[in-house]
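Hi all, posting the design record for the shared folder.

TITLE: backbone redesign
STEP: 1 of 1
STRUCTURE INPUT:
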């Protein structure tokens, strides 16, 4: 099985646009590039069970914890740059909706988009909270994403494949990097490395998603995470004082909650169950994916290599 980070992959298409013209038809280019990456990987892996997960309107749960979560500067449409940014954003939204509603289901690809949930939350629920029945899984299953945050969803039997970087991250690699071997650490071999990873994400921060602790990098975050989860004192120093202050004022706990996919509510989990059952109906459709688009075609030599006519179905 393959679970695809649809939002992240489509964003890549948005920022790697190969056309010089940006107009109201730009969404077709984004959709083309998205399908080119996905179908190429599907043809290589010979996998027919595919679910694409999407962000929709941000995370309601995280907004309640941190109102500024994913708040970006508004687009200034009075400038040429602003007008182009608006066209790109509108193109992204239109391509996402078309892929979810029409294209992917007709290609036999399941698609899940739930308002108020992010793609990574959906993927975590599908794989870590038992939404996908075990008899639907293969020996090795794949998350298709370039987003390092998806490592939190890794469990035995799953790998991350980064299609642009052509890099694989296995559960074994992830757990060896983050497992806390201290006797007082969490005993569960799956929860143990995930907890360290969540603490690291919380301290490092990520733009407007997670504020983090100022001045904390990956290596120091891991060092402190190991101490905290072992019940040890974090020590003295300027960085340690910053972490101690974040613990004291509650901002670290807030950031841990922002980083933790496992905080999904029962209501949200029920929505994922419903969306999953609907999405896999697409698996009953088995078209010849390689006739959909000529993957060997040089995308610069023709407009969409026959893709334009397909968009009108």
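Okay, here is what came back for every position:
SEQUENCE:
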């Amino acid at each position: 099985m393959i679970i695809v980070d649809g939002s992240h992959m489509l964003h890549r298409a948005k920022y790697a646009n190969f056309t010089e013209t940006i107009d109201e038809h730009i969404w077709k280019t984004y959709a083309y590039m998205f399908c080119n990456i996905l179908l190429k990987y599907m043809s290589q892996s010979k996998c027919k069970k595919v679910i694409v997960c999407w962000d929709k309107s941000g995370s309601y749960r995280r907004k309640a914890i941190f109102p500024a979560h994913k708040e970006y500067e508004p687009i200034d449409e009075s400038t040429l740059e602003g007008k182009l940014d608006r066209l790109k954003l509108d193109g992204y939204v239109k391509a996402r909706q078309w892929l979810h509603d029409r294209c992917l289901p007709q290609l036999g690809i399941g698609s899940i988009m739930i308002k108020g949930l992010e793609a990574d939350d959906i993927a975590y629920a599908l794989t870590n909270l038992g939404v996908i029945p075990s008899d639907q899984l293969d020996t090795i299953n794949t998350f298709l994403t370039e987003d390092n945050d998806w490592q939190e969803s890794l469990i035995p039997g799953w790998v991350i494949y980064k299609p642009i970087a052509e890099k694989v991250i296995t559960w074994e690699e992830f757990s060896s990097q983050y497992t806390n071997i201290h006797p007082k650490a969490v005993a569960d071999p799956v929860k143990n490395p995930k907890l360290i990873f969540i603490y690291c994400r919380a301290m490092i921060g990520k733009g407007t998603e997670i504020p983090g602790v100022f001045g904390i990098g990956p290596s120091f975050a891991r060092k402190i995470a190991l101490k905290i989860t072992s019940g040890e004192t974090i020590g003295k120093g300027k960085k340690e004082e910053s972490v101690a202050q974040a613990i004291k004022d509650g901002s670290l706990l807030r950031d841990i909650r922002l980083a933790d996919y496992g905080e999904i509510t029962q209501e949200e989990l029920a929505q994922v169950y419903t969306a999953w059952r609907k999405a896999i109906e697409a698996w009953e459709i088995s078209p010849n994916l390689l006739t959909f688009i000529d993957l060997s075609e040089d995308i610069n030599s023709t407009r969409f290599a026959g893709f334009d006519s397909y968009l009108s179905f």
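COMMENT: Residues 290-305 have pLDDT under 50 and may be disordered.
Let me know if anyone wants the other runs.
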